[in-house]
C-alpha cells in the first residue's frame, strides 16, 4: 500500500477529487499555501494499493495542466507534485 500526498493548484482540485472518488479512492482534502509562490493550493492524501498508483498518477496528469505563474522570482510552470510513500501498516476503525 502507498500513501500519495499530492499538492495541486486549487483550480484543479475538484476535477481530480471527483475522478478519484468515482474510481473508489478515498481522499482527504487539506487547504495549503505554498511557500515559493505564496498562493493557495490543495493537498490531497490518498491511500492506494501498489498496483493502482500509476492509475492515480494518470488522473493527475489528465486534470493538472501546467500553468505559467508569476512570482517575485520570475515565471514558473506549475502543475502537481506527488509524493508516493510506502505504508507499512494501515488500520481502519
UniProtKB/TrEMBL annotation:
InterPro entries: CdAMP_rec, N-reg_PII-like_a/b, N-reg_PII/ATP_PRibTrfase_C. It comes from the Bacteria. This is Transcriptional regulator.
Amino acid at each position: 500500500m502507498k500513501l500519495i500526498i499530492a499538492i495541486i493548484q486549487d483550480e484543479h482540485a475538484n476535477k481530480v477529487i471527483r475522478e478519484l472518488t468515482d474510481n473508489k479512492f478515498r481522499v482527504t482534502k487539506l487547504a495549503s499555501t505554498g511557500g515559493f509562490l505564496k498562493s493557495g493550493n490543495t493537498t490531497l492524501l490518498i491511500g492506494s494499493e501498489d498496483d493502482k498508483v500509476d492509475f492515480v498518477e494518470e488522473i493527475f496528469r489528465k486534470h493538472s495542466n501546467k500553468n505559467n505563474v508569476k512570482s517575485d522570482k520570475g515565471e514558473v510552470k506549475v502543475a502537481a507534485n506527488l509524493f508516493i510513500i510506502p505504508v507499512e501498516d494501515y488500520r481502519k476503525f
